[in-house]
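Journal club prep, shared notes

We agreed each person brings one worked example of a sequence with its structure written out as tokens. Mine is Myosin motor domain-containing protein. I'm keeping it raw so we can talk through how to read the token line rather than staring at a rendered picture. Sequence first:
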Amino acid sequence: MSKSTGNFLTLAEAIEKYCADGVRLALADAGDSLDDENVKEEMAEAGLLRLYGLLDWIGQTLKAMFEDGGFGY
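Then the structure, token by token:
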């Protein structure tokens, strides 16, 4: 993203477009070095898909465990 190329989003615009969790994931994925990082919109979208996929899997797993009579300890 770059202001000079016209594809810059403010933090508020990014949160409105992707939600706070998506922006957090994209920023965390962009790196932790001292160099300027290139944050791509695809990172936010992919991060959200992974996050919501994981949440869906957890929900399905817990539902199946409780329907089958618990955790089996």
